[in-house]
Amino acid sequence: MAPHLVFVRDFPMSIPKRSFIVLATFFLSVLLYVDRVCISAAKGPISTDLELSETQMGWVFSAFALGYALLQTPSGWLADRLGPRRVLAMIVATWSVFTGLTAFASNLTSMMIVRFLFGAGEAGAFPGMSRAVYAWIPMNERGLVQGINFSGSRIGAAVTLPLISLLITGIGWRPTFLVLMVVGFVWSILWFLFFRDDPIDAGWLSHQERDFIVTNRQSRITKQDAFTASELTSKKSLFNSIVGSKTVWALCGQYFASNFVFFFGLTWFFPQLVNRYGLSGLEASLFAAIPMLFGAIGNWTAGWWVDRLYKSNQWKLSRRLPAMTGFFFATVGILGSAYATTPLTSSLWFSLCIFGADMTISPSWSTCVDIGKSNSGVVSGTMNMAGNIGSFVTSLAFPYLLAWTGSPLPFFYVAAALNLAAIALWMAIEPTVALEAAK
Prior knowledge:
By secondary structure, the protein is an all-alpha fold.
């Protein structure tokens, strides 16, 4: 029996070595969101030191999201062409530099510039991981691996909020960003030393496992796969394939909705708990961390469900059903949180929302790998660009809607409507039709 990602009866004492690749990308996902959510935990002292208003902090949050969104597709294309080994090492080192430079921001303009460049530096992380998943992970393990990777970001955010709050209290917000910079440099060096773009080049991998990976990376090739790899390598044909694919457009639309909800959890959920219920920073960080843990559970749940449905020969349903179920939960949760009367009930309702929103992640990225194959970096980057335009809109929509209406409710209504629209969009997504054949 071929080796699997999890323990199996024939290999009770061994772990497939591709599991270490998954562990590395999991920790990358943790680091990605530790660095990202730190700005939310540090909002209080930053806005005080730099004399920034709520709407100005909204622009600081949105500067990251804009930089992150704009560089998604180019960095995904770069990962496809240069390979995730060099690209991910370069990306982590770059964003770590701008994490450190955040400590030297002195006003709104400098903070927006450094956060924009930080976002641009982070942009290729998940598309690069997606390309690594295509090369290293067999089809029937893809959903779980995507779920594990994205759960790292949620665990990172959950752990960060209270720990970063304590660290900021102990050493200040500026030294905290410098500490995170050093951690990023360490990951970048280790990844470059040990990872290889293709398992064929990994001398530390057994022949048996190498052959199993190569044979099962994309076990089902659809009859519509008419274009050759050389034809799709052309920038023009690749661009035309993406623009002409209704699946890519639908993926972008539903991911906009998913990120619109989730980025609120990374940015404004924490400070609005402080303002709404009169909590201290540490108290609010604990309530804000709970939804992130539920997000990790949502990733694991959907990842398991995606693979289980796929193994029962329901490829299309394995992507659609978990995502549509997730958006339903997100709709219910965001509305429940809007009308909560205590910080605990607000946190629990929002936990249901994030659990549902994160159920959409594994099927979304698995579909990008399904239809993109060796171009999965640029396809997932395109989807993630659209999603982070949603993040950009969220950063500004919440403070401005609050200022215009005097109530947070309009924002929650908009989020609920986007989630419902995303359910319908999934009916237009065809994961079994490769991008080469999509016109």
